[in-house]
Design brief:
Blueprint lengths: L2 E8 L2 E8 L3 H4 L27 E9 L3 H16 L6 E5 L11 E4 L2 H6 L3 H4 L5 E2 L2 E7 L4 E3 L14 E4 H14 L3 E4 L3 E6 L5 E6 L2 E3 L5 E6 L3 E9 L6 H10 L10 E10 L9 E7 L8 E8 L5 E9 L9 H8 L3 H7 L3 E11 L11 E2 L2 E3 L15 H19 L14 H6 L2 H8 L13 H13 L40 H5 L14 E3 L4 H10 L3 H4 L5 E6 L4 E6 L9 H5 L5 E3 L14
Parallel strand pairs: 3-4, 3-15, 4-10, 7-17, 15-22
Antiparallel strand pairs: 1-2, 5-9, 6-9, 7-8, 11-12, 12-15, 13-14, 16-19, 16-20, 17-18, 18-19, 21-22, 23-26, 24-25
Helix pairs in contact: 2-5, 2-9
């Protein structure tokens, strides 16, 4: 058998690989067994299996129990009570409890909760830490240069609160249940259902009892169907059903593509003398180069123990395939002006999540469709320079509920599914639209030959003008198309973790509380099992093993074929959606795992 010697990088070492002439089944072993790729109708093992679903009918189904979804549910029940009407409102949430999958180093503007619950203080809402001081800095290799924050500018947090967003969402869930909202935790929506006329009918929850090889177990149970007059999608950033809805109804026609970042976060208990409850710090600069967008946050919470939330955001339009957002975050903490905060402290939690960065230009042209609408981060309502979206999520959910009830209780519609047609106008007349328009040029201004320095200058002008400049900048290309070839970029060698300030990936994942049933098909599905080796490894040396913040993707030697192969450690997945966004060929598709699964951030 003929053989060819090839040099390949494995764990930053040069290892000789013998490339042999082998069959495709050996060179490209089957990775994906999920039924969304391999239909059960064509699988003999599924013949005779009962596929009937239980059906329940409600008035409003809300997919996702985050700030947007819970606010929509609460507002719907409030309005029904005001009108002395009885309606059923159901929230489908994949986390085991409300707030369980919420990750945010959050500084919350209370404008929306003031409207939803004017007496939130008396009700015990967990907004315990008013912002007392703001700091914004540019980091050099060893120093810190302060940047002034002017009143009313995006980085001004006067009047806001530092919160553990998961705690706030859990509290919202309690208020929703008190109003009669039906919340189904640990119950992931896996499929959009349609009426014969094409309007949305509701959703189906995921099946359980499927083995890793895709076959039915003895415990197989079909999910249930939830039919509704109106379905509100509040899945958060890059929701897998929202993607389908956007394609189905062409909601993005005429708008720019969405752009994204990945936010990584840790919670620490630090030494009491270093703790300053209400202090909010942000930085830009080191360790990222001038052409990589990103920065950090450090928030001091008023908790029983001296607690801080530290995080790092990297724009997913970065170009160097050797870059690891996780490693950049760990390196950031070793900066001499940052390290001192954590020395003597104890890291207690870790997590990561993709965030929208497209802003005003990337909002869907159509926010509604026959049978429903998009709210919160599903629609892209995030203010990039403020690094805030929770108050927009809550407000959009409230407006969607108002529109949904107007439709349901109004005149008969053209389609079976009720479309909340007044919702777009309500959004355009709200502070959401005004705020996002004002800062529309901040994020795209960083696409210039000077990178960070040009972006600071151009975005500063835009902020100074209050968004009144007579132009709207466009985003650069898609995030998944931004990578240069590995051979064209310098390899980044990251320092080893000291296990005091910086840590390795697997010990970090252990702090997420992530949990998936082991014997189930991987929910990170591949359209083609060939693409990882033929494209991602061949051109970029397997970037998914670096952009994933949880060690899900790993290239290991395929001894029989004399090549490499992709191994998916789906049990590590923390549902950040980065792979769904950054994969160069858009070959990876995130779908819900059995039973929802995923991290248990416990209010992080």
């Amino acid at each position: 058998m003929s053989a060819l010697m090839k040099v390949s990088r494995v764990n930053k070492l040069f290892t000789p690989i013998i490339v042999r002439s082998v069959s495709d089944s050996v060179k490209y072993p089957k990775i994906t067994t999920h039924y969304t790729i391999h239909p059960r109708e064509k699988d003999e093992r599924w013949k005779g299996v009962n596929m009937e679903r239980f059906i329940d009918e409600v008035d409003v189904v809300i997919v996702g129990g985050g700030p947007a979804g819970m606010s929509a549910a609460i507002r719907a029940k409030q309005l029904a009570a005001e009108q002395q009407k009885e309606i059923r409102v159901c929230v489908v949430e994949k986390a085991a409890e409300a707030g369980g999958h919420i990750l945010s180093g959050a500084v919350v503007d209370p404008v929306s909760i003031n409207e939803l619950f004017p007496n939130w203080k008396e009700l015990g809402a967990p907004l315990n830490t008013p912002v007392t001081k703001d700091s914004f800095s540019y980091l050099t290799d060893t120093g810190r240069i302060s940047i002034p924050i002017f009143k009313g500018w995006p980085m001004d947090n006067h009047g806001n609160y530092v919160v553990r967003l998961g705690h706030l969402v859990k509290w919202l869930g309690e208020q929703a249940e008190a109003l009669g909202v039906e919340i189904y935790p640990g119950c992931a929506a896996s499929e959009v259902l349609f009426h014969k006329d094409g309007s949305v009918k509701g959703v189906a929850t995921n099946d359980v009892g499927i083995a890793k090889d895709g076959s039915p177990k003895d415990t197989f149970a079909r999910g249930m169907e939830l039919h509704a007059k109106t379905t509100i999608f509040a899945e958060g950033c890059r929701g897998h059903l929202t993607k389908q809805i956007m394609r189905q109804f062409d909601l993005n026609e005429g708008s720019q593509h969405q752009t994204y970042g990945i936010g990584l976060k840790e919670v620490w208990e630090i030494q009491p003398e270093k703790h300053q409850p209400g202090l909010v710090e942000h930085t830009i600069g080191w360790p990222l180069d001038k052409h990589t967008y990103g920065g950090s946050f450090l928030y001091h919470l008023n908790e029983p123990t001296p607690t801080v939330a530290v995080g790092f955001v990297v724009g997913l339009d970065y170009q160097n395939p050797w870059l690891s957002p996780f490693q950049e975050f760990q390196r950031f903490k070793t900066h001499p002006k940052v390290r001192e905060v954590f020395e003597g402290g104890n890291r207690i939690a870790y997590g990561a999540r993709a965030i929208n960065e497209g802003g005003f230009q990337s909002l869907p042209t159509k926010l509604t469709f026959p049978g429903g609408c998009l709210v919160g981060c599903s629609a892209g309502f995030l203010n990039v320079p403020k690094i805030k979206g929770s108050h927009y999520a809550m407000k959009s959910g409230m407006l969607a509920a108002e529109s949904a009830l107007e439709s349901i209780m109004g005149e008969k519609q053209e389609t079976t599914g009720y479309e909340p047609k007044s919702y777009p106008d309500k959004i355009k007349n709200s502070f959401i639209w005004k705020d996002l328009y004002k800062v529309r040029n901040v994020r795209p201004s960083f696409h210039n030959p000077l990178g960070l320095y040009g972006g600071m200058m151009l975005s500063g002008i835009s902020i100074f003008l209050g968004g009144r400049e007579p132009w709207t900048l466009k985003h650069a290309g898609l995030d998944n198309q931004s990578l240069k070839l590995a051979s064209q970029c310098p390899q980044i060698v990251y320092p080893k973790p000291d296990n005091k300030i910086s840590f390795d990936l697997l010990s970090s994942v252990a702090l997420t509380g992530t949990n998936h049933e082991g014997d189930q098909p991987a929910h990170l599905t591949l359209h083609s099992d060939r693409t990882p080796l033929d494209h991602n490894w061949a051109l970029y040396e397997g970037p998914e093993q670096r952009f994933c913040p949880a060690g899900v993707y790993e290239y290991v030697p395929n001894e029989e074929a004399g090549t490499m192969k992709l191994q998916i450690n789906a049990q590590n997945c923390i549902h950040c959606k980065t792979c769904d966004i950054k994969d160069p060929k858009q070959n990876i598709n995130w779908v819900v795992p059995e039973g929802g699964g995923g991290p248990a951030y416990n209010g992080m």
